[in-house]
Design brief:
The chain is an alpha+beta fold. It is built from three helices and eight strands. Strands 4, 5, 6 and 7 form a four-stranded antiparallel beta sheet that branches. A two-stranded antiparallel ribbon has the order 1-2. The longest helix has 18 residues.
């Protein structure tokens, strides 16, 4: 839970910085709070990002709820933020916005404790690191 607050804080900081610019009010996750490290998508803190095979691209629904979402925390988007390119978001049943990439909801893995950890890769043959 603490990590999600840090991500949220980073998103808020990026939004505040974008308000100082004369460019359009569009936050692009790939440059503001998602990074590519060694071919793997991570948060700006280096936390690896995953997709879930049971999620259907562009369905607008996350199949990872309850205990699943505890083990695989969703990558949340601050309400009101605009995304672009291959990024979008879905609204989860609890009303929170979850970031998507190419139509698939994005998640972290709770057991990844250090930046760059990829302990969730291929868990149960349905979880995969995002390799843009």
């Amino acid at each position: 839970m603490n990590f999600q607050w840090k991500v949220l804080g980073g998103i808020c900081f990026a939004i505040a910085l974008s308000a100082c610019s004369t460019t359009p009010d569009v936050a692009t996750p790939s440059s503001d709070f998602m990074k590519i490290n060694n071919g793997i998508m991570t948060s700006s803190y280096g936390k690896t990002v995953y997709t879930f095979d049971k999620d259907q691209p562009a369905s607008g629904v996350s199949e990872c709820v309850m205990t699943c979402a505890t083990n695989w925390p969703p990558v949340y988007v601050e309400p009101g933020i605009k995304v672009s390119g291959d990024f979008n978001f879905i609204t989860r049943k609890d009303g929170q916005k979850q970031l998507t990439y190419k139509g698939k909801p994005l998640y972290f893995y709770a057991k990844d404790s250090k930046p760059g950890d990829q302990l969730g890769e291929n868990v149960n043959n349905v979880w995969h690191v995002v390799k843009p």
